[in-house]
Each structure stands twice: as C-alpha cells, then as structure tokens.
C-alpha cells in the first residue's frame, strides 16, 4: 500500500495542499474554514494519512508531547485525572503519553528515561514521594514538571492538589455531629504528602472537635490500596481498639474496610461508620453507598495540564501551587453510633 | 546539581563501573550477583542516576519501548489489561507508553504519530474498529501490532480476545435456567468486533435455547458506556417491550441499567434481571452485586505483551490469534422472573 501524501489528502478533500496542511496542523487550523477543516480531517482519516511529526518537530523544535507519570493506573482515581489532562492537552494539539510506575522506583526511572529521551516537553507527575531524588534531578536538568495530587518536599515546582486539610476536617466534623467520639484513622503511606497532610489534618480536627485524640487509633497503611486498608483495620480490631467510626486515607482503603466488615460480619454503618476520600467512580452504587470526600478529579488533571502548557509557553513564568476545593458527600456508610458502641470493639 | 554518572553509581555501590553497567541494563543483569545488582539499583535510585537510553539505543538500534493504545482509560476494564501488559514488558526491560484515544480517530492518529515517530518497537492496540484504515496503514508500513480485546476485519495481525461466543451463551443459558423466556440484549457498538460477536452469539444462544428470538429485543448502544446503556434500556421500556431480563454488552452498559432502575423505581433482580460482561473491579460490591461474565483481564494484557515481544524477537514469526476462556459469575442481579412478569414491562 502506497503511503498517502498530503497531496492525496488535499485532492480527496478538494482543497489546495497548503489549505490541507493548515487544516491538519492544530496550530493553524483556526485559519481554515471550519467545514473545510472537517473535510480535510475526514479525508486524512479515511486515507490513513499521518503527518510526519519528526519533520514538523525539526522545523519547530517542539515535539508537542507531554508525559504523565501515574503511580498505579488500577486505582480508579487516576483515569479521570488523566482524562482531564488529556482533554486540555489535546485541545492544544498536544499528545499525552501515560506511564504507570506501579509504585516501583526502578520502573519509574526507566519510564522517565524513555519519556525524556523522546523529548517530551514536560511532565505531569502524580507519583511524587516526599523524598524523591529522581524528580529533583529532572528539575535540576531543567525539565518542566507540574505535580498533581501529591507534592514533594524541597522541590520548588508548581502543583495542583486537593485541599486535604479541609476534606479531612469535613469528614471528622460529620462524624462528630452524628455523635461519634472515638474515631480511627487509617492513614495513607507517610512517604507521600497526601498521607502526611491527611494524617496531620485528622489529629487537628479531632482535637478541635474535642473528641478522642488517641495515637492508638491511627494506623498507617503500607499502600493506598484495598488490601493495605483491610490489614490496617484488622490490626485495629485485633488489638481490641475502641472506636465507632473510621476516616480512611482514600476510597480504596475504605473499600478494604468493606472487605473486613464482610469477613467478620460487622454491619456498616450500624456498628462501624466509614468515610472514604476522593469519590472515585461507583462509590455511589456500593452496598452501602460510600460517604466520602469528593475531589474534582477531572479539574485536577485539566488544571495541571494548563499549568504545564503555561510553563512551556512562557518559560520564565513560575506559577504557584493550586489548592482545589473538596466537598463531603454523605451517603450510606455513616450513621449515628449504636448506643452500646462503647464496648463493641472491645468485646470482639 | 551535577548529573550523576555511571562512575558515581559504581562508587556508591562499591563495584566496578562495568559491573554497575551490567546491573543497570536489564538484558545483562542476570550476569551479576543478585545482591550486587540490588545494591547498584539502589545506589542509582538514591543518586537519581539515569542511563542515557539514546546512547544505548544507538548502540543496539532498539528503543525497548512499546505503545499501548486504549480507547477509553476511564472504562475500568482497561487498567487491569494495561497492568498485565506492563508487568510482562517490564520484566523484559521494556517500557510501555500508554495512549488513550477517547474513541476519537483524530486523537488516535496524533497519538500514533507521536508513538511511531518515537520509534516504539511495536503497538498493542485495544482501539480496533472493524473498519480501521489507520491500522491497515501501520501494518502495511511494517509496524508490529497485536490487537487486544477487539479484532479488525481484513487486518492479518495476531490478537488476544475473550471467548465472546462462550461468554454470551453462558449468560443466556443462566437466564433460561432461571425461567426467563423473553431476554433483551443491549448490544455494544457494531463498529467493533466485540459488539458484533456478542450480538451474533446472543441471537444464536436464544435460538438454541428455544426462547424468544425477537429483533425488537435487541438495541445497539452508541458507546460502551453507562449513559449509552441507560439510553438503550430507556428506549426498550418506553417502547413497551416485553422482557424480564437483559444481557448487556459490557458491565458499563449494565451499570447504565442500574441507573434506569433507580430512576424508574424498578427492582433488580425482582422485576428485571441483568447480566454484565467483563467483571470489571467492584462489580461484587454493588447493590445488587452484579452477575457478569468474567474475562481474564490481566492475562489478556500479559498474553498480548508476550505475543508482541515474540514478534519483535523473531520477526519472521506469525503467531495466530488467542481466545481466552471466560466464566459466568453469578451474583445478585439475576433471579427467576416474577410470576406476573409477562405483562410487567407493557404496563409501565
């Protein structure tokens, strides 16, 4: 099969080659009549035409590609974030190459090598750990980075994160209003800013609300995953800890609690209430529907993409960090504590 | 910050540079003592060392990168598939760059341009449509392609797909055994092989089971998405169609049915049973837990990655297509039809 040329596309669309070229280039498309542009794109699609991006990037010295580093694509939090970033990048004629590190530093190093050697114009990074030498190195080399969801210490790059202090405070206040006085926290890993920030906010919130501020009621999970959440709740229960509600570090940790409830025949919310964090897809359809903190997932991605494009367009610009508002969504996994709750956990 | 060199890594790990180099290269790592390799990788990570993959690929003429084309990353089917592929590729020292096309042919064309111009060694493609000129073009250009989940007509490349005929037959037989005689099918888009194959299998299965084979009971959904599923079920109900069970093209279409049930106060499974397809994460935790066809998501990805690596290693090899077995998982969304069911839908 002969490779179709720009001329073939122009002929099929019944336009001049220069017009076809302008229509195919996202930077110049606006200069072409919208109906004509549509016709050219359709002709290109049906012929299987592909522009030569190496030739184009040699001319413009720009690859129009951005890398997205995700810690774990099977966490349903990330696909909507990626979608938000992707949509903004795509509108601007950029393509996003996504890389999932599986929380493995060596895999991350290889993926970054692969992206950077392919001249991505910048990185949107959701894998940040508080101590993250690879990111520091990339930043020192002048690679444009925007952090998303998590921050890193000692790394002066822009970030877009949910307002975790507000989210955790809303969760604790909701439980206190329901009458809970002994609330446990299943914290995310303290190697991540979200784990530390949500834990700190939890301590502040229980103290401010005048309910139990008991270090015994806080357990750190190894990963932001269901099985880590199940293990952490199991630890608390086996220890005979006295609590009637759980603030989970994220929805997956809260889902791990659902697993333990099912295994041990604990009724949620009658015996233990639980609140998640993030409001990932399907939380409204669970049994019971999960009370959680909604974070604007799509906007996190879109805002990070806008920020990165801003840094690419004006390299001297140093945007600050953006904190996006979060909201409590009350569903069925929280209720007033049972009257005999004080001795419940201890009696197990 | 000075960029760390191979020598720095070797010194930090207390080994010779040649050893460090072997340990850092996945192809030669096995030649190094495992404990030494771990020390070198740890030193590389803590120094933020990155190999120069362009130099390496100039030497070997291989980029060790593979592209994964996904139609919609927010469909929870795909992250586990990506994970399966990623794990196999990673073990072999490959990195996977993931691209989500959002079912948009123009975006797909740009993403493919971006991947191919960055010399990926092959593509794993989950976006195939039955008529797909871009894929035909890529194949004609000699780019190695393995199709996953879906096939394309007139494209002679290997594929890894679930055994859809078996899956749909199991679904129909389960409903017939429960006593259903009028079963509807909310089909996936007929632009995809999965949409066509599952629809065809449905017609065969109802005929073979001797229950209603009524074209009125089949509605094609525009996308493999919840809102398309909700719209299709709404159409059937508004039309007064007579049915007591639904075989949905995939889990998201079945989730769209859940939405309609909630809106219209229809009880599932008491009034209408529904079966999904794929067994995406969390289907076991829904209200009601969803009966669905489980497909081996991780294995689909892993098998496709193995196939692609096989084609890369032995360019003359032409592996056939692989059909992976699927299993019915009975949960709470299917039950025997109510006695008065014959007139139920019509009376709405």
Textual characterization of the structure:
- Two copies of one chain form a homodimer.
- Chain A has 348 residues and is α/β, with parallel strands linked by helices.
- Chain A is built from 13 helices and twelve strands.
- Chain A is elongated.
- Chains A and B meet through α3, α4, α5, β2 and α6 of A and α3, α4, α5, β2 and α6 of B.
Q: Looking across the biggest beta sheet of chain A, what order are the strands in?
A: 2-1-3-4-5-11
| Cα radius of gyration of chain A in angstroms | 25 Å
Distance N to C terminus of chain A: 72 Å
Profile the largest sheet of chain A. 6 strands, parallel
What does the average pLDDT of chain A come to? Answer: 90
Strand residues, percent of chain A: 5-15%
Our count of helices of chain A gives: 13
Count of strand segments of chain A? 12
Shape summary of chain A: elongated
- Unreliable residue runs of chain A: 54-60, 341-348
CATH superfamily of the largest domain in chain A: Response regulator
Largest interface: A-B, 66 and 66 residues
What is the number of independent domains of chain A?
3
CATH class value of the largest domain in chain A: Alpha Beta
What is the CATH topology assignment of the largest domain in chain A?
A: Rossmann fold
- Oligomeric organization of the protein chains: homodimer
């Amino acid at each position: 099969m002969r490779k179709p040329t720009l001329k073939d596309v122009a002929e099929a669309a019944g336009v001049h080659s220069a017009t076809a070229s302008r229509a195919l280039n996202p930077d110049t498309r606006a200069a072409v009549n919208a109906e004509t542009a549509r016709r050219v794109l359709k002709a290109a699609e049906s012929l299987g035409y592909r522009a030569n991006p190496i030739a184009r990037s040699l001319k413009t010295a720009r690859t129009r590609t951005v890398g997205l580093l995700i810690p774990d694509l099977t966490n349903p939090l990330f696909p909507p974030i990626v979608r938000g970033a992707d949509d903004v990048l795509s509108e601007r004629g950029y393509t996003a190459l996504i890389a999932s590190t599986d929380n493995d530093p060596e895999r991350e190093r290889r993926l970054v090598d692969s992206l950077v050697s392919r001249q991505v114009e910048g990185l949107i990074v959701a894998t940040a750990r508080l101590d993250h030498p690879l990111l520091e190195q990339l930043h020192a080399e002048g690679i444009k980075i925007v952090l998303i969801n998590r921050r890193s210490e000692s790394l002066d790059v822009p970030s877009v994160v949910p307002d975790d202090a507000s989210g955790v405070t809303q969760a604790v206040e909701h439980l206190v209003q329901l009458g809970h006085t002994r609330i446990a926290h299943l914290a995310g890993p303290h190697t991540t800013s979200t784990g530390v920030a949500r834990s700190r906010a939890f301590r502040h919130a229980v103290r401010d609300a005048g309910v139990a501020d008991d270090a015994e009621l806080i357990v750190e999970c190894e990963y932001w995953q269901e099985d880590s959440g199940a293990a952490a709740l199991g630890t608390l229960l086996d220890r005979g800890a006295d609590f009637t509600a759980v603030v989970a570090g994220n929805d997956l940790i809260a889902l791990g609690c659902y697993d333990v409830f099912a295994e041990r025949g604990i009724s949620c919310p009658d015996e233990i209430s639980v609140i998640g964090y993030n409001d990932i897809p399907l939380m409204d359809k669970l049994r019971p529907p999960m009370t959680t903190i909604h974070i604007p997932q799509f906007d996190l991605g879109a805002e990070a993409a806008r920020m990165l494009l801003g840094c690419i367009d004006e390299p001297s610009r140093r945007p600050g960090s953006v904190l996006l508002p979060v909201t409590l969504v009350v569903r069925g996994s929280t209720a007033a504590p049972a009257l005999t709750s004080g001795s419940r956990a201890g009696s197990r």
